């Protein structure tokens, strides 16, 4: 056992909220230790619909504060993480002019009414309000209502009963898990005494000292304050700390990534955000050359049990049929499926009506050390939520706020070239390396300006993967050495888009495992164990024996 190590703040959980608090506090010179039991952003933060959005549907439940905050944070992310967050033109199809008036009013007043038709009038009202809430830092156009003819010119093949649509703009994030990691790396650079560790096991708390296992050794830390950023596992973490709680009530949501060229073509770059006959809201949009479809909403007792079931996959395929009746989506087209557990506050009744807003519950260890539990929140609002938590921790530790995070660019989003400067940026890197401009452009989209750190390793020439030539051996080796990769899943699911894009075949898993094995010194059994374990936590690649990835 090692000596007791002192730190200002211990953050348990490395989802987007833990990562956000880590960066904010580190920017203030507060020393943090973040401990994540799996990999960074492997929980709900990997299981989301990947929208950086204002939350149009929260207008229906009257959560105006949340809508305003989400819309402002979305607009900030478009600037601060421009390498990964981009505008997404979105359409809400309309089936009638006056549908949904009564149900919308009922939901607004907290009653449980089924809303399966949002008519043109109610939608126009909603989108007008939405524009209003999103006006600060606006960088995208206002909404427009479209009749069927103008809608057909944008998106072909919608079902005949759709009479028009509202066109508005959201943000989408391409590499959500990487952005979480970049927050941690930025935090460590700003304050080198702060550290973030993944694949850690919390062992317990005694007398204000927390024990944990990392890299085979047991360590002990005495923090001045603790942040429980365990998401849907907050109660489990509190149990481990010896302060039992019943704060959380998770809801599982599943997504599919499907290969359906007709659907991809029909979408023409748009998201369709649509109500289904069962009163739910679903979505689909182009994602990494395929189509992402989501999501379900089911109560779940334990977040470790989350997985996208065949029933959910069937439901999502069928839901698309309600708006594209002539473009069948079938289970054989599924290239990847994933699920996550929304860390919602415990509440009875319809899970769809539980608030998606965030809050902080303060508890205490026996020794008097404060424990701030971060409940709920959206991916989109992580910065604001982190700021709120950090402000409280600064107050508790008697430290001043030195820097704001509103305009702080993240990781590879720093000095990211805009459309006008992109070609010149790429040209300069292509000139100084052996890489073709098209390859530099591809890597810029993957890593933002962090590419400048990777590039020296690639200038000696790249060896494309046999089974996925868009990636190279040298690129993956650099990620293994520089980005806290511990397991094969870290590399395939979170440092790269290989799994989420639907490109993870058994052959790719085998080839990438071979590269990682050389970097980390895994023997044959170790390499096979990594391949077999490609289904960690609440967000997983579905196991399809004998290799744990979806075969094509
Ligand atoms: C289906 C679905 C769709 C969503 N869509 C969107 C969307 O489009 N846009 C949006 O803004 N938001 C969306 N969200 C919400 C958003 O993803 C979550 O609110 C957010 O990711 C929560 O982050 P978190 O850090 O609180 O939790 P998590 O990401 O779950 O992080 C908690 C972390 O704690 C770790 N942990 C657990 N136990 C321990 C322990 N004992 N020791 C150490 N670490 C531990 C876990 O491994 C995990 O990494 C969606 C969520 C879901 C599930």
Automatic annotation (TrEMBL):
GO terms for biological process: glycerol-3-phosphate catabolic process. Residues 404-525 form the Alpha-glycerophosphate oxidase C-terminal domain. The keyword Oxidoreductase applies. GO terms for molecular function: glycerol-3-phosphate dehydrogenase (quinone) activity. Residues 8-355 form the FAD dependent oxidoreductase domain. Its cofactor is FAD. InterPro entries: DAO_C, DAO_C_sf, FAD-dep_OxRdtase, FAD/NAD-bd_sf, G3P_DH_FAD-dep. Keywords: FAD, Flavoprotein, Oxidoreductase. This is Glycerol-3-phosphate dehydrogenase/oxidase. It comes from Paracoccus onubensis.
